[in-house]
Amino acid sequence: MTQTSVRENLLRIQERIAEAANRAGRGAEEITLIGVSKTQPASAIREAYEAGVRHFGENRVQEWEGKRAGTDGLAAKWHLIGHLQSNKTARAARLFHSIDSVDDFAIAQRLDRTLAEAGITGKLRALIEVRVAPEETKSGVEIGELPKLAESFGDLPRLELAGLMCIPPFLEKTEQVRPYFKRLRELRDELEKKLGLRLAVLSMGMSHDFEVAIEEGAIEVRVGTALFGTRDIK
Ligand SMILES: *Cc1c(COP(=O)(O)O)cnc(C)c1O
Question: What domains are there in the chain, each with its CATH number?
Answer without folding.
Answer: 3-228 (3.20.20.10)
